[in-house]
Write a structure and sequence with these properties.
The complex is a heterodimer of chains A (288) and B (320).
Chain A lengths: L2 H16 L4 H18 L36 H7 L1 H29 L1 H15 L3 H12 L3 H28 L2 H8 L4 H12 L1 H25 L10 H9 L7 H34 L1
Helix pairs in contact in A: 1-12, 2-4, 2-12, 4-5, 4-7, 4-9, 4-10, 5-7, 6-7, 7-10, 8-9, 10-11, 10-12, 11-12
Chain B lengths: L1 H30 L4 H6 L6 H11 L5 H13 L15 H36 L4 H15 L2 H15 L11 H36 L2 H8 L4 H19 L1 H18 L5 H10 L3 H29 L2 H5 L4
The chains are: A mainly alpha (288), B mainly alpha (320).
Chain lengths: 288, 320
C-alpha cells in the first residue's frame, strides 16, 4: 500500500477515536455501571435488609418509608429488587464467559482444522437450532429438581453450539485470506495462528456474541425463576419477584413492575453496548 | 426428480431429529432422582399390583436398550402411557389433545394479527426507508423484540387488565365472542413479539427487493404503485419471510408457555409446566415428542412453501 492511500485512512481512524459514543450508549454504560455497583455492594443502597419481614405492612403500596411498597411478607420491595441484582447478573456473566471461552476456541479450531470435528459440531448446532432451548432447560431443571447452578450449567451447555457455529463461520472467512496462507508458509503452528492471528481478527464477533449470550442468559434465568425453577436459595431474584407480584397486582403492582423494568433496561443497555462495540470494532478493522 | 430428492433429504433430516429427541426424552426417566420404578409410581400408593403393571408396561426387568425399544414402539403409535400425577390414570395422548386446542386457538389468533398488521408495517417501513415512518416502526419493533414474553405479558396484564380494566384478567369466557374477548390480550402479547420479528424480516426483505432492477423497470413502464407492491415486491419479499417461520415457531412455543402461565390459560404450555413440577414423566415425554413432531412438520411445510412461491428455487435446490 502506498503512503498516499494510507494517509486518509489514518485520519479517519483518529476521528473515530475522538468521537464520543452516541447518547444511548453512554446511558447504557451508566446503567450497567449502576448494576455492577448493586451487584458488588448491594448493602450500600438498600434502604432495608431485603429479607427483613414486617408482617404489619403486608402488601402495602408505596409510602415515604417504603418507596416501592412491600410484598406479602412485609419486605421492602426496593431492597428486594436491589438485592436481586446479584443473582440476575452473576449467572449470566458466568454463562457468557464460559460460552465464549469454550465456544470460540472450539469454533476457531473447527473452522481452521475442518474434518470430523467440524462436521460433528455442525450437526449438534443443527439439532439445537431446531429445539426451543429454554423449554429444554425447563424440562431438565424441573425434572432433575436442581437449583440456580444447575440452570446456569444447562444454559451454558446449550448455548455453546451456537457460539461454535458463529465463530466457525467467522474463522472460515479468515482462513481463505492471504495472511493465514503467509503464516502457514513460514511454518507457524496451528495453535499460534489461531491464537495470535485469527482470534484478533474475529474479535468483533466474539465481543458481540459475549454480550448477546449475556442478554440471552439473563432473560432465560429470569424466566426460569419466574416459573419457579432454578431460583437462588435464600436470595431475592427478579424472576421470582415478578411471579410473587402477579397475584398482588391490585394491592402493590410495583412488586412486579420494578423487576420487569429492571430486566428490560438491563437487557436493552447490554444489547446497545454490544451493537456499538461491534460497529466500532468492524470500523477500526476496515481502516487498518 | 431433484425436488423429490431434496424433500426426501429434508424428511430424513426431520426423522433423524425425532430419533435423537426420542432418546433424550426417554432418558428423562433416568435423569429424574429416585429409581425408575419410584418415578413411575409417583405419589400413588405402592402396591404389588401396581409394581407388576409398571414392570410389564415399561419392561423394567430388561436391559435399557430393550426398554427404549418398547417405549419407542408405543410412542410411534402415539401411546405414551398414562399420566402419573397431573390427572392420574388418564392416557397422556387424551390429556394432550384436551389441552392443545386452546394453545392452537391462541396461536391462530396471534398469527392472524401478525399477518394482518406485521407484514403491512414491515412493507411500509421498507418502502419508506430512512423516513420518520420507517424509524418509528423500526424503533418500536426493536424494543418489542428484546423484551421477554413474561415481562410484556405481566405489564400488559397490569396496564390493560388491572389499571385500565379494558380486558378480563382471568378466565376463558363463554361462547365464541367471550372466548375471543378473553384471548385478545394474550394473543396481542404473543403477536407483539412475533410481529416485531416479522416486521424486521419483512423490512429487510423489502429493502433488498426494491433495489432490484426489475422494480425500477416496472416503475419505468408506468405500472401502478399498488400493482408493483403486490405483484413484484410482496411476492419476492415473501420467500425470506416464509423461511423464518421455523424460527418463529420455536420462539412462539417458548413465549406461548410463559403467556399461558401469566394469563392462567389451561393450554399445552401450562400442562407441560404442571407435568414438570409434578414430575409426571410420561406426560412430559408425550408433550416433548408432540412438540418435536410439530417443529419437523412446520419446517417441511416451509420448504414446500418456498418451492411453490419461488420457482427459481426448484432449479437451484442443492442435492449435497
Amino acid at each position: 500500500m502506498t503512503t498516499l492511500a494510507a494517509e486518509p485512512a489514518v485520519a479517519v481512524r483518529r476521528a473515530s477515536v475522538r468521537r464520543l459514543p452516541p447518547l444511548t450508549v453512554i446511558i447504557s454504560f451508566v446503567v450497567v455501571l449502576i448494576m455492577l455497583v448493586l451487584t458488588v455492594v448491594p448493602g450500600l443502597v438498600e434502604p432495608y435488609n431485603p429479607l427483613y419481614q414486617n408482617l404489619f405492612l403486608s402488601a402495602a403500596g408505596p409510602t415515604h418509608a417504603h418507596w416501592l411498597g412491600t410484598d406479602s411478607n412485609g419486605r421492602d420491595v426496593l431492597s428486594l429488587v436491589i438485592g436481586g441484582t446479584r443473582s440476575a447478573l452473576i449467572g449470566p456473566a458466568l454463562i457468557a464467559f464460559g460460552t465464549v471461552t469454550l465456544g470460540a476456541s472450539l469454533g476457531m479450531a473447527a473452522g481452521f482444522l475442518g474434518g470430523p470435528l467440524d462436521a460433528f459440531v455442525n450437526r449438534l448446532a443443527d439439532l439445537l437450532y431446531a429445539l426451543p432451548g429454554l423449554l429444554v432447560v425447563i424440562v431438565i431443571v424441573g425434572v432433575v429438581g436442581g437449583g440456580y447452578w444447575l440452570a446456569v450449567l444447562v444454559l451454558l451447555l446449550l448455548s455453546i453450539p451456537g457460539e461454535i457455529r458463529l465463530c466457525r463461520a467467522a474463522t472460515s472467512v479468515q482462513v481463505r485470506l492471504p495472511y493465514v496462507e503467509a503464516a502457514r508458509t513460514i511454518g507457524l503452528p496451528s495453535r499460534r495462528i489461531i491464537a495470535r492471528h485469527i482470534a484478533p481478527n474475529i474479535l468483533p464477533t466474539i465481543i458481540a456474541t459475549f454480550l448477546l449470550d449475556f442478554v440471552g442468559a439473563l432473560l432465560g434465568l429470569a424466566g426460569l425463576a419466574y416459573l419457579g425453577f432454578g431460583t437462588p436459595p435464600g436470595a431475592p431474584s427478579w424472576g421470582a419477584l415478578l411471579y410473587a407480584g402477579e397475584s398482588l397486582l391490585q394491592q402493590n403492582p410495583w412488586l412486579s413492575i420494578a423487576p420487569a423494568i429492571l430486566i428490560i433496561i438491563t437487557a436493552t443497555s447490554v444489547t446497545l453496548i454490544g451493537d456499538w462495540c461491534y460497529e466500532r470494532a468492524v470500523r477500526s478493522g476496515t481502516d487498518r | 426428480m431433484r425436488i423429490t430428492l431434496f424433500l426426501l433429504r429434508r424428511l430424513a433430516g426431520g426423522l433423524a431429529l425425532l430419533v435423537v429427541l426420542s432418546m433424550l426424552v426417554f432418558g428423562l426417566l433416568y435423569l429424574s432422582p429416585g429409581s425408575t420404578l419410584q418415578v413411575l409410581m409417583g405419589s400413588r400408593p405402592p402396591s404389588p399390583a401396581l409394581v407388576r403393571a409398571l414392570n410389564a408396561k415399561y419392561h423394567l426387568n430388561e436391559p435399557v436398550v430393550l426398554q427404549y425399544w418398547h417405549w419407542l414402539e408405543g410412542a410411534v403409535h402415539f401411546n405414551f402411557g398414562v399420566s402419573i400425577s397431573v390427572e392420574t390414570g388418564e392416557p397422556v395422548t387424551t390429556l394432550i389433545l384436551d389441552r392443545v386446542g386452546l394453545s392452537a386457538e391462541l396461536a391462530l389468533y396471534a398469527l392472524i394479527i401478525v399477518v394482518l398488521v406485521g407484514i403491512p408495517l414491515g412493507m411500509l417501513a421498507g418502502t419508506r426507508r430512512g423516513r420518520a415512518t420507517d424509524r418509528g416502526i423500526s424503533l418500536v419493533s426493536t424494543a418489542a423484540v428484546s423484551a421477554p414474553a413474561y415481562v410484556t405479558s405481566i405489564l400488559g396484564l397490569y396496564v390493560f387488565g388491572v389499571a385500565l380494566g379494558w380486558f378480563p384478567v382471568y378466565g376463558l369466557g363463554t361462547g365464541f365472542a367471550g372466548r375471543l374477548w378473553h384471548l385478545t390480550l394474550p394473543a396481542l402479547t404473543l403477536a407483539a413479539l412475533l410481529g416485531a420479528i416479522v416486521v424486521r424480516q419483512t423490512r429487510a426483505a423489502v429493502l433488498d427487493v426494491v433495489s432490484q432492477d426489475y422494480i425500477t423497470f416496472a416503475r419505468l413502464r408506468g405500472l401502478r404503485r399498488g400493482r408493483i407492491l403486490l405483484k413484484y415486491t410482496l411476492r419476492n419479499a415473501a420467500v425470506p419471510v416464509l423461511t423464518s417461520a421455523g424460527i418463529l415457531l420455536i420462539i412462539a412455543i417458548t413465549a406461548g408457555l410463559f403467556i399461558e402461565q401469566v394469563f392462567s390459560l389451561p393450554g399445552a404450555g401450562t400442562l407441560l409446566l404442571t407435568a414438570v413440577t409434578d414430575k409426571d414423566i410420561p406426560t412430559v415425554q408425550g408433550l416433548a415428542m408432540a412438540l418435536g413432531i410439530l417443529v419437523v412438520v412446520v419446517n417441511l411445510l416451509v420448504d414446500v412453501g418456498v418451492l411453490i412461491l419461488d420457482p427459481r428455487t426448484r432449479f437451484s435446490t442443492k442435492v449435497r
